[in-house]
């Protein structure tokens, strides 16, 4: 979260922006309530990073950046600039590449994100895959996970309501560790490597469909090249990010279509129109739009 002040010549108002939106105080007359105004300035001048909304798990030590997870371990960060979604309200996904302390020379992807409480955590799908299949080539593996805090914990008792008294979904902050596979398909060095990786991702979707799991957020950002030296045929491309995934019960309603779920430019026509339920054919159509996007925008 982050705090901000809206200041005029007569009044001040305090805002808190977080992944659920914004909450703000009433107008405070700065001349009649000068003490309150000074308290606000002092509070926002604190050197306590946690109170200001920073993630204090990311810390500098000498010239290196580390992620210090209480009760989990300390991980050296390889990329100073993380991947993150440039939005205020929503999942706020942030991804760091860290050294794997258990395997020298190997790297992990550490992902932080905020999920709504009514969504099934992505690790449940990955754990189900590992439990039933051991693993599916072309689907990201899970190396660790945990939950941290909720937005309701940061609101200090303020209700999660809109000005019209509509309930705002609470969100859970969590992290997952996965192998670091490599770059997105857009960065493929040549056409053959691109098509081999894309083929393996499509094969992985078929295996997910057999488990009645739909991804629902297939895009160019979620289809990766597997650049690890031990990558075999079937795992040259990897599908990641199961935040939006759902189970589909055959012969029943399944996952309703919702154009707000996923990346709009890659959504199927059926999802955009709001027809029926989201199934594996919609994931397949999104994959087609993804590879078409790469073919039309690549300079290689």
What descriptive keywords fit this protein?
about 300 residues, Transferase(Phosphotransferase), domain 1, globular
What does this structure look like?
- The protein has 3 domains: 2-44, no CATH class; 55-180, Phosphorylase Kinase, domain 1 (2-Layer Sandwich); 181-300, Transferase(Phosphotransferase), domain 1 (Orthogonal Bundle).
- It is an alpha+beta fold.
- It is built from 6 helices and 18 strands.
- The relative contact order is 0.10.
- Helices cover 23% and strands 27% of the residues.
- The chain is globular and about 70 Å long.
- The strands form 6 sheets. A 5-stranded antiparallel sheet has the order 8-9-10-12-11. Strands 1, 2, 3 and 4 form a 4-stranded antiparallel sheet that branches. The protein has a 3-stranded antiparallel sheet with strand order 5-6-7, with no helix packed on it.
- It has helices spanning 34-44, 122-133, 151-154, 191-210, 269-273, 280-297, and strands spanning 2-7, 11-18, 21-24, 28-29, 58-61, 64-69, 73-76, 83-84, 94-99, 107-116, 144-150, 171-179, 213-214, 223-225, 237-239, 246-247, 255-256, 277-278.
- Residues 83-300 form the Protein kinase domain.
- InterPro entries: Kinase-like_dom_sf, Pkinase_fungal, Prot_kinase_dom, Tyr_kinase_AS.
- GO terms for molecular function: ATP binding; protein kinase activity.
């Amino acid at each position: 979260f982050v705090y901000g002040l809206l200041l005029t010549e007569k009044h001040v108002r305090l805002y808190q922006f977080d992944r659920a939106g914004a909450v703000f105080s009433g107008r405070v007359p700065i001349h009649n309530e000068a003490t309150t105004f000074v308290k606000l300035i002092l509070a926002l001048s604190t050197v306590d990073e946690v109170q200001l909304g920073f993630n204090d798990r990311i810390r500098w030590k000498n010239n290196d950046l580390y992620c210090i997870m209480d009760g989990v371990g300390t991980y050296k960060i390889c990329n100073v600039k993380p991947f993150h979604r440039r939005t205020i309200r929503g999942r706020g996904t942030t991804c760091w590449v860290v050294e794997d302390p258990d395997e020298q020379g190997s790297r992990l992807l550490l992902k932080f994100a905020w999920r709504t409480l009514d969504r099934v955590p992505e690790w449940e799908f990955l754990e189900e895959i590992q439990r039933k299949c051991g693993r599916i080539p072309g689907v990201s593996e899970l190396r660790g996970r945990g939950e941290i805090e909720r937005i309701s914990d940061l609101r200090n008792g303020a209700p999660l309501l809109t000005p019209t008294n509509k309930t705002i979904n609470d969100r859970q902050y969590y992290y997952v560790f996965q192998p670091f596979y490599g770059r997105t398909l857009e960065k493929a060095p040549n056409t053959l490597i691109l098509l081999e990786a894309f083929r393996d991702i499509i094969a992985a979707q078929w295996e997910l469909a057999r488990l009645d799991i739909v991804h629902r957020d297939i895009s160019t950002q979620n289809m990766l090249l597997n650049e690890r030296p031990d990558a075999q045929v079937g795992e040259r491309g990897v599908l990641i990010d199961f935040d939006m995934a759902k189970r589909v019960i055959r012969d029943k309603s399944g996952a309703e279509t919702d154009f707000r779920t996923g990346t709009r430019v890659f959504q199927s026509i059926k999802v955009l129109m709001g027809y029926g339920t989201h199934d594996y054919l919609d994931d397949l159509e999104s994959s087609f739009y993804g590879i078409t996007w790469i073919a039309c925008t690549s300079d290689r």
